[in-house]
Amino acid sequence: MDQVGIIVLGKSTPLNALQVFKCLSDETRLMLMLLIAHEQSLCVCEMTYVLEESQPKVSRHLAQLRQCGLLVDQRDGQWVYYQLAPQLPTWARHILESAQQGSAARLARLTQRLAAMGDRPTRRAALC
To answer: What's the average model confidence in pLDDT over 8-23?
Structure first.
């Protein structure tokens, strides 16, 4: 069985389907996960721009996804980039792939908006 242990409030518990679905049950969190899965790595300013949401709201949802064990973050100077957790179980990745198919039209619009931002150095200079 493909499980991963996560730490929530100092306790190590295996990631299970119920936790994953609870974490993905919010539209903003789901779209954040789908964008990150599609792009492999995004920073907060890119996600706030693409989703047209406030930085505090996006950061709060990213923290919840990290706490669920679905995302990891990596600091690069003043920027924090988010990626899918490398230990994310195969079954959870399949859930995200299915969700990408079910949200294909919206995801396409969001990735177009992201592409319109230019490359990452341009994005940093303009938005972050």
So the answer is: 75
